[in-house]
Amino acid sequence: MRRNSAILPIAVFTPSRWPAPDCGPRLEWRAEGETLDGEAALQAAIARLAAGKIVAIKGIGGFHLACDAGNPAAVATLRARKHRPAKPLAVMLPTATGLPAAAAALMGSPAAPIVLIAKAQVSGLCDEIAPGLAEVGVMLPSNPLQHLLLQGLARPIVMTSGNLSGRPPTLSNAQALNELADIADGFLLHNRDIVQRMDDSLVRSSGEMLRRARGYVPDALPLPPGLGDIPPLLALGADMKNTFCLARGSEAVLSQHFGDLGEEGVEQQWRSALQLMQSIYAFVPQRVVVDAHPGYRSTQWAASLPLPLETVLHHHAHAAACLAEHRWPLDGGDVIALTLDGIGMGENGALWGGECLRVNYRECEHLGGLPAVALPGGTWRHASRGEICWPTVWRLSLTGRIIRRPPPCASATGRCWRRPSSAGLTHRALHPADGCLMPLPAPWIARRRV
């Protein structure tokens, strides 16, 4: 039982994740007209994974797509079927033997997150797991079914999200059998419904949180000194990489990671989670806070609520969140903040992304930032790195002076980082931020050290 006086006036009981022979959950294996139950289902999944096949595995917060992490052909097949040519894949290990102590402790904690560590510190992985990158995300089994699978296999396996590329995670057996049929060679299912989507959490071995979800949500976070006695407030976040927040008294509850609300299925899961959390916590908001961008789904949905609506500049919210993370008191005074990200709404409708601000929790003053450049294709498109270079060409040519309706401009740091990656590395953006993740070539590193 977990009780929290500020956020949670009622007791919340956490059901056991450990199964019993009489209670279940009941395992079922489905593949090519074959149906097996119980132990036979488990052994069929183990055999298929060992043979280099791809298996969809139902967990407690969604499905995973799994394959042998040491089999290059199996990993290449998974990437081809999922249309995920280069984005790094998470790996589940049987044990943390041989890993750094800090990483092993995090992996073995009750939260059991994915931990980002140096790829050279993990043995038994093929190069296709995280091509061109120096780090890889690894985790240990976090539920009984995963423990049984890894005990039977005794080798690392890929455990990536069970969904079509760009779509929300699959949650039901019927949905998995339909949507993942062209990816998985078999399905290891159980009869326990997934009520709420919950992605795997991701942290660095230093403890820095990169994605807060399974194992950490919905634990309340203390607000900084001076921010106590807050009336019930609902903050809905931006559209990309969305989370929402319930704040009351001296604490706040952040939701799990949802992704892009522009995807219809993601928005449905987001609304369902919001409704459930408000019900569990007996939370009735008195105000709603949203991003200042009028085109965001979260902002538009909030406008339909019969509650006072407050807008916050995207990068002021970033800076304030950083202050709160470091327990900066309400009366701590102003700070200088560098807010470097993708794109967010700034003052007078400008698109910001590389700004220097003077901020406190209540106020934000724009001191300067990166020069704004044109965005070919608009703000919502993940352009190729070659296209990202065109804004510079645009400014140096007559084209921008001739065309009467140029594309929107933004001072986005993320877009700036993409341009160097196009200079001799690769010109196609295979996934968001892949250019930023690429390690520098050895001659560049050597020159930098001189």
- What overall form do the CA principal axes indicate? globular
Described by its quaternary structure, the protein is single chain
How many domains, in number, for the residues? 4
CATH class annotation of the largest domain: Alpha Beta
Give start-end ranges of low-pLDDT stretches.
1-5, 8-16, 381-386, 441-450
What does the main sheet amount to? 11 strands, mixed
Mean pLDDT: 85
How do the strands line up in the largest sheet?
Answer: 4-3-11-5-6-10-7-9-8-12-13
Secondary-structure arrangement, i.e. CATH architecture of the largest domain:
Alpha-Beta Complex
* Radius of gyration over all CA atoms, rounded: 23 Å
- The fraction of residues in strands falls at 15-25%
Ends distance: 57 Å
Task: Offer a quick outline of the entry.
Pfam families: HypF_C, HypF_C_2, Sua5_yciO_yrdC. This protein is of the alpha+beta class and 450 residues long.
Textual characterization of the structure:
Its EC number is 2.1.3.-. This protein has 450 residues and is an alpha+beta fold. It folds into 4 domains: 164 residues, DHBP synthase (Alpha-Beta Complex), CATH 3.90.870.30; 91 residues, Nucleotidyltransferase, domain 5 (2-Layer Sandwich); 55 residues, Nucleotidyltransferase, domain 5 (2-Layer Sandwich); 77 residues, no CATH class. It is 27% helix and 25% strand. The strands form 5 sheets. Strands 4-3-11-5-6-10-7-9-8-12-13 form an 11-stranded mixed β-sheet, sandwiched between helices. The radius of gyration is 23 Å and the shape is globular. The N terminus and C terminus are likely disordered.
